[in-house]
């Protein structure tokens, strides 16, 4: 199977490699010519056999809208576009309508796995018509982790990104809980080895998780997180999850508090945000801000 892949950054580039390792033919395009297989989106489309499948892996919002606008004019009826970025589910509905008017299919794919996806596989939450999802099964099978789980056809167009949004909202709350516990342990004089306390939790406890493993990795790199400024960005999904909770009258105190804690981090060098920033760097390769030396 052939696939066009637009956006070869941290995740897109690793996805291209994993797909090729599985025997799929991937033609990649990126604005960075050092990463790209072709010089333009026009060339990418020309290199693919019909019916074409083009996976978009660029930042949500304006960048995704621009790429889909271009593909609307370049692709033909029967082709399929997959948005694998972190777009808002309401954008999916608009993009599907735009493409369907030209006879082009649309699938939204929430992708989780960060910088570890090449090695471990990517969890995929997918929305769209069953016929389009079935056509893309070889791609999903190549990307997902080994075993029976890691892929779900979550529902109609928008369902994949909605599920990924909720996943990321839960992730906010989990990271915040670890961060608060870490700060309390660091503050109490009687606890003299916080890192090893965290490590001890990775076996046999009810709070063990991959995030906890990554927290230990971060503490191995910087035991007291002294090199990291307590500042953590939010990439949008946490806000959207809280807004969806409001729209649907679903109480979300933990996720909302975690989101607001990130806002607090922009006002001071928050110890809790050191841990959140370290975790985001560990699982997603997100940049951290170094401590300023005055």
Topology overview:
Elements: E1 2-6, H1 10-21, E2 25-29, H2 41-47, E3 53-56, H3 62-74, E4 80-83, H4 89-100, E5 105-112, H5 117-120, E6 123-127, H6 130-135, H7 137-143, E7 151-155, H8 159-187, H9 194-200, H10 210-221, H11 237-247, H12 253-265, H13 271-284
Parallel strand pairs: 1-2, 1-3, 3-4, 4-5, 6-7
Antiparallel strand pairs: 5-6
Helix pairs in contact: 8-11, 8-12, 8-13, 9-10, 10-13
CATH architecture of the largest domain: 3-Layer(aba) Sandwich
Strand order of the largest sheet: 2-1-3-4-5-6-7
Q: What is the 3D form?
A: elongated
Order of helices and strands: EHEHEHEHEHEHHEHHHHHH
Instruction: Compute the CA-based radius of gyration.
Output: 21 Å
CATH topology annotation of the largest domain: Rossmann fold
Look at the structure and name the CATH superfamily of the largest domain: NAD(P)-binding Rossmann-like Domain
Strand segment tally: 7
Measured by DSSP, the beta-strand proportion falls in 5-15%
End-to-end CA span: 55 Å
What class, by secondary structure content?
A: alpha/beta
Sheet of most strands: 7 strands, mixed
Query: Helix count?
Result: 13
* Poorly predicted ranges: none
CATH class bucket of the largest domain: Alpha Beta
Helix-residue proportion = 40-55%
Q: Let me know the average pLDDT.
A: 94
Number of domains: 2
């Amino acid at each position: 199977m052939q696939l066009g892949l637009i956006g070869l950054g941290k995740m897109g580039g690793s996805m291209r490699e994993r797909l090729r390792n599985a025997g799929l033919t991937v033609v990649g395009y990126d604005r960075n010519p050092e990463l790209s297989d072709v010089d333009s989106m026009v060339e990418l489309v020309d290199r693919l056999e019909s019916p074409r499948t083009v996976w978009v892996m660029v930042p949500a919002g304006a960048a995704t809208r621009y790429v889909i606008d271009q593909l609307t004019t370049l692709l033909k009826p029967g082709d399929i576009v997959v948005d694998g970025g972190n777009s808002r589910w309401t954008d999916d509905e608009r993009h599907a309508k735009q493409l369907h008017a030209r006879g082009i299919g649309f699938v939204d794919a929430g992708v989780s796995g960060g910088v570890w996806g090449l090695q471990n596989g990517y969890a995929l939450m997918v929305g769209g018509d069953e016929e389009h999802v079935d056509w893309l099964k070889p791609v999903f099978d190549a990307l997902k982790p080994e075993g029976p789980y890691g892929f779900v056809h979550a529902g109609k167009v928008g369902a994949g990104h909605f599920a990924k949004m909720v996943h990321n909202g839960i992730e906010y709350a989990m990271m915040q809980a670890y961060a608060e516990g870490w700060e309390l342990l660091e503050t109490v004089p009687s606890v003299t080895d916080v890192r090893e306390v965290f490590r001890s939790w990775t076996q046999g406890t009810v709070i063990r998780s991959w995030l906890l493993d990554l927290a230990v990795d971060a503490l191995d790199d910087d035991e007291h997180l002294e090199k990291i400024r307590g500042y953590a960005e939010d990439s949008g999904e946490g806000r959207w999850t809280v807004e969806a909770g409001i729209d649907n009258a679903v109480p979300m105190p933990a996720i909302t508090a975690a989101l607001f804690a990130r806002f607090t981090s922009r006002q001071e060098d928050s110890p809790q945000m050191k841990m959140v920033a370290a975790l985001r760097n560990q699982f997603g390769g997100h940049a951290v801000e170094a401590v300023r030396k005055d």
